[in-house]
Amino acid sequence: MQPFIAPVTLTGCHAQLEPLHTGHAQELAAAVADGELWNLWYTSAPRPENIGAYIEAALDMRARLHAMPFVIRVMRDGKPAEVVGCTRMFNVDPANRRLEIGHTWHARSVQRTAINTECKRMLLTHAFEVLDCIAVEFRTHWLNHQSRTAIARLGAKQDGILRNHTRMPDGSLRDTVVFSIIASEWPAVRQHLQFLLDKPRC
Hints:
This protein is an alpha+beta fold. The protein is 32% helix and 34% strand. An eight-stranded mixed sheet has the order 1-2-3-4-5-6-8-7, with helices on both faces. The radius of gyration is 16 Å and the shape is globular.
């Protein structure tokens, strides 16, 4: 039986999404060190010395739960260059044709560029137009205002807040904000994302 989600490489003008593997460890360690992203306590970015365990956990999620973790490469002169982050399709529900996009982090040097917008557009295009999803979710920490703003900017709508939803590594309890895009909204969202990518600053 063909799995609902399978490894795929997605390439755009600004970024390429490539299935994660153990050989990405050194590049990911360099990317996460750009901005010391692990110091943002509300994100999932690992410390450089924990990259091996981070990759192992992501690949275990892929094997058991049919998630699909990706590394993000920046495109330079039309060719994929260095790794600048990670993202993931997960919480895959084949019966109901739903999934979540998350576990996303970007090196500081590419934050507030077109890369996040284009990666989300590629993932959403794959979800809605290849996998025929009926909905795609995004979730983030209530206190991660930058992430909440970025998700809303994509065109996702806030569904609600899950109070005391999960326990963070430091023991604190996370209130999770849930957003989604549904299939009927995708054509307008796709047009909106293309507009954002066409703007000069992108």
